[in-house]
Write a structure and sequence with these properties.
Blueprint (H helix, E strand, L loop, with lengths): L8 E6 L1 H19 L6 E7 L3 H8 L6 E9 L12 E4 L9 E9 L3 H11 L5 E10 L11 E6 L4 E2 L15 E4 L6
Parallel strand pairs: 2-3, 2-5, 5-6, 6-7
Antiparallel strand pairs: 1-9, 3-4, 8-9
The structure holds inosinic acid (IMP) and magnesium ion.
């Protein structure tokens, strides 16, 4: 009836246990930075790739926070990014004077994060930081750094734990490399 996802993966890059361990560490890193602040944190999550990471990460944060969701359109069905970045759905939280942490799945070319940061900065947040689960070390631009990074990875197309190819594989619990012949 349904396709088996394992058959489409060339290899598992980051197994689920390592993801969980690192997400808990990230939670502690984030708590160290924001823990003493009296202003409530707003997490601004970029849909849809961040959803699984987001759900795990925010449950590791031991203080009050609010969640804002935004959709950025950039990448449709392809394994390389290109074209304009634009906000399809804006945050449902006011961020003026608030500490804001942007959460995304992956820092690849950096276009998405750069544009989101630019737009949110215009609204006068008290602070603006970024957290990504993955960063493609070789490709991410030197002048755009995420404040919190889960894993540095090589320049391969990955799926699972929220990341998709053409809408699929988000529900795979590990982060895996898709067999290149599937998208060539
Ligand atoms: P950017 O190139 O940094 O703007 O990344 C844009 C978006 O492309 C990310 O938020 C992901 O949703 C998607 N993306 C980039 N690289 C990958 C990948 O290896 N697998 C799945 N999605 C990716
Ligand atoms: Mg994304």
């Amino acid at each position: 009836m349904t396709g088996r996802m394992e058959a489409d993966l060339a290899k598992i890059l980051i197994p689920r246990e390592r993801i969980q361990q690192r997400v808990q560490e990230l939670g502690r890193e984030i708590a160290r930075v924001y823990g003493e602040q009296s202003e409530e944190l707003v997490i601004a999550a970029i849909l849809s790739g961040s959803i699984i990471f987001l759900a795990d990460l925010i449950r590791c944060l031991p203080f009050k926070m609010k969640l804002g969701l935004m959709t950025v359109s950039r990448y449709r069905g392809a394994t390389t990014t290109g074209g304009e970045t634009h906000l399809v759905q804006d945050l449902n939280e006011d961020i003026s004077g608030r500490h804001v942490l942007v959460v995304d799945d992956i820092l690849d070319s950096g276009h998405t994060l750069r544009e989101v940061k630019r737009q949110l900065a215009e609204r006068g947040p008290a602070s603006l930081r970024t957290c990504v689960l993955l960063r493609k070390t070789a490709k991410a631009p030197k002048d755009l750094n995420a404040d919190f990074v889960g894993f540095e990875i090589e320049d391969v197309f990955v799926v699972g734990y929220g990341l998709d190819y053409d809408g699929q594989y988000r529900n795979w619990p590990d982060i895996g490399v898709l067999r290149p012949e599937l998208y060539a």
